[in-house]
Design brief:
By secondary structure, the protein is of the alpha/beta class. The protein has 2 domains: 2-102 and 289-310, Rossmann fold (3-Layer(aba) Sandwich), CATH 3.40.50.720; 104-281, Rossmann fold (3-Layer(aba) Sandwich), CATH 3.40.50.720. The protein has helices at 13-25, 40-47, 62-65, 86-91, 104-120, 122-130, 155-166, 180-184, 192-198, 218-223, 241-250, 290-310; strands at residues 2-5, 29-32, 52-55, 73-76, 95-97, 147-151, 170-174, 188-189, 201-204, 229-232, 255-258, 279-281. The strands form 2 sheets. It has a 7-stranded parallel β-sheet, sandwiched between helices. It has a 5-stranded parallel β-sheet with strand order 2-1-3-4-5. Helix 5 (104-120) crosses helix 7 (155-166).
């Protein structure tokens, strides 16, 4: 059986060679690539003849999957699966498994870090001192005592809640179902509208699907306090990006931080959030830490081994 890892995944060549020997000992062919190339044509080449493919967040639309006629299993080194044509996979008996849990700590830490950066204006103040200026009359805000609304209480949302509680925040939550672990932390579940109206900070931790697409739009932004912040480390299309940019320019909300967008960075220079005031942007780095990538490699190839053993 041929197994193809179509991108480097942050793994060293030495590690890949160990995996190659591991699968050779099991009687399988293992190929890997030390560069990332997202073109559909290249994906077709790299997946050619493979029954098992390992990929992270490179898009695998129907036109790529249709040309991978031997494909039977996708081990996805990512939490979300919205970049893969799951309908095609289901109708063609292709098993898809994500790497849930590998980046829980990484994403939750960045979400809280973004809150602190905006409230203390760390990034902006770095620019101030580099131009020969001082603090002037600047005053930041503290995280302690703020009401933070957590939208989505899966593993990452729950980890974020625990960090926020350690900072002394009051946390409220919205999720389509209530989790006992979250309630045991003293967190109250409320409606999305109630959360938006009451929160000093709203942080998003939901997957991308038909239910969550555009869940934060103009109406929802108008419900928020004019002093509130919006943090998005989930998926870009959970928000109406144009509406967020307008809300920042018009003062409907005070600030925002986005690590995710409607497309993978780099962004065009005319992207609406680039020109929006008090908007912290990072190029989809929430999941990307040395520790999370090490965990991810272990998860995805353990999944491959489990699938092979069942087969």
């Amino acid at each position: 059986m041929k197994i193809s890892c179509v991108e480097p995944l942050g793994i060293s060549q030495e590690h890949f060679e160990q995996l190659k020997k591991h699968y050779a000992d099991m009687g399988h062919e293992f190929v890997y690539y030390m560069d990332r190339n997202e073109s559909p044509e290249e994906m077709v080449k790299r997946m050619d003849g493979a029954e098992v493919v390992v990929v992270s967040n490179i898009k695998l639309p129907r036109e790529v999957l249709e040309k991978s006629d031997k494909l039977r299993y996708l081990s996805v080194a990512f939490t979300g699966l919205d970049h893969i044509d799951l309908e095609y996979c289901q109708s063609n008996s292709i098993t898809v498994q994500n790497a849930s849990g590998y980046s829980t700590t990484a994403v939750s830490e960045l979400a809280v870090g973004m809150m602190i950066d905006i409230m203390r204006q760390v990034t902006r103040m770095d620019g101030v001192i580099r131009t020969g200026k001082g603090r002037g009359m600047f005053l930041g805000r503290e995280l302690k005592g703020k009401t933070v609304g957590v939208v989505g209480t899966g593993a990452i949302g729950t980890a974020t809640i625990k960090l926020l509680l350690a900072f002394g925040c009051k946390v409220i939550a919205y999720n389509r179902s209530r989790h006992e672990e979250v309630e045991n932390l003293g967190v109250k579940y409320v409606t999305l509208g109630e959360l938006l109206k009451a929160s000093d900070i709203v942080t998003l931790h939901v997957p991308m699907n038909a239910e969550t697409k555009g869940m934060i739009g103009r109406e929802q932004l108008k419900m928020m306090k004019p002093t509130a912040l919006l943090i998005n480390t989930a998926r870009g299309m959970v928000c109406d990006i144009e509406a967020v940019a307008e809300a920042l320019k018009e003062g409907t909300i005070a600030g925002a931080a986005f690590d995710v967008f409607e497309k993978e960075p780099p962004l065009p220079t005319e992207h609406p959030l680039i020109g929006a005031p008090n908007c912290l942007l990072t190029p989809h780095i929430a999941f990307a830490t040395e520790e999370s990538f090490a965990d991810r490699a272990g998860i995805v190839f353990r999944h491959v081994d489990e699938w092979l053993s069942k087969k």
